[in-house]
Amino acid sequence: MQIAFLVASEGVEQVELTEPWQAVVDAGAVPHLVSPSGGSVQAFHHLDKADSFTVNRTLDEARVEDYGALVLPGGVANPDALRLDERAVAFTRGFFDAGKPVAAICHAPWMLIEADVVRGRTLTSWPSLATDIRNAGGSWVDERVKICTSGKNTLVTSRKPDDLKAFCATLVNELDDGGR
Predict the structure, then answer these.
(1) Residue 142 in this model has a pLDDT that exceeds 80
(2) How many CA atoms lie within 13 Å of 80's alpha carbon, on the beta-carbon side?
(3) Which of 2, 38, 3, 1 has its CA nearest to residue 17?
(4) Active site (annotated) includes residue 106
(5) Where are the beta strands (DSSP E) in the chain?
(6) pLDDT tens-digit profile of 39-82?
(7) Maximum Cα–Cα distance for the chain, whole Å?
(8) What is the pLDDT of residues 143-178, one digit of tens each?
(9) Strand-strand pairing, 2-6 and 30-35
(10) How far is CA 100 from the centre of its chain?
(11) Is residue 153 within 8 Å of 96, Cβ to Cβ?
């Protein structure tokens, strides 16, 4: 199974990309880095530049039907940039429309809000997004990881890098269960 990791060209929180990526690899799936532009993406450790990662497919090349699930890493700048790209928003929404699992951590639920897929869903995030989630029709909870199956797909969300162990384990479990 191929898993899409959608990130902006700059600003993804490195650990929120690399730890779920490794968990997906360890589970026997194939992660693909998807971004608006080709080449590489610049990751960050909070506000400091970290490593660069090679893009596997651009948003113009990636198709929802090629993937079994979507992972949205956080970082403040990453989802803020992505939500301004209609291709990224449509790609994200496509996983919900297709009933495929989506996992988002930290500030990544901004993409879910922009894609208009949080209405009636319960999720967690970095605490500063709580009002945004509520205003978009979702319910926000302060939990390490939240699984929501009240929609067409399974949605896994988590708050921050400290929650990555639980987030990765839940992500892998949902992939093993086929998202339901």
Answers:
(1) yes
(2) 8
(3) 3
(4) yes
(5) 2-6, 10-13, 30-35, 40-45, 48-54, 57-58, 69-72, 102-105, 122-123, 139-140, 145-148, 155-158
(6) 999 999 999 999 999 999 999 999 999 999 999 999 999 999 99
(7) 38
(8) 999 999 999 999 999 999 999 999 999 999 998 876
(9) parallel
(10) 12
(11) yes
Bridge-based pairing of strands 69-72 and 145-148 is: unpaired
- Of the candidates 100, 92, 99, the residue with the CA atom closest to the CA atom of residue 116: 92
Catalytic residue among 32, 46, 107, 148: 107
Both structure tokens of 5 = 């990791």
pLDDT of residue 179: 55
Confidence of residue 6 (pLDDT cuts 50, 70, 90): very high
Task: Supply φ then ψ for residue 131, to 5 degrees.
Answer: -65, -40
Residue 48 to residue 85: CA distance in whole angstroms: 24
Please tell me which residue in 32, 106, 148, 168 is annotated as part of the active site. 106
Question: In 10 A of CB 159, how many CB atoms?
Answer: 22
Residue 103 pLDDT > 80: yes
Q: Which of 15, 13, 45, 14 is nearest to 165 (CA)?
A: 15
- Token reading at 86: 């209609």
